[in-house]
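Example record used in the benchmark description.
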Amino acid sequence: MRPDEQDQLPALGLGITNVAARATARADELRAAELVEGGRKLVRTVRRYRPAWVAVLGIGAYRTAFQPGATGIGPQPEPLGGARSGCCRTRAA
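Model output (structure tokens):
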């Protein structure tokens, strides 16, 4: 889908958001406190809308915002606000 089609996602049972409230070129430009606070807000959103899955772009951002012990790329062992969660790469390996 194109970015201008994201309003169609809810009808498909999908959604898209950011962990941090401000735009940056790279996740390492965000302070840990921003990711932690954004993570708290996202968990509340997940509890409200109850998606089956939450995917986060970037293991570093995921670890900082949610679970320091995250296992790596792919599905994570702990749920996020009741949803299964996973991480994906920020760039091709």
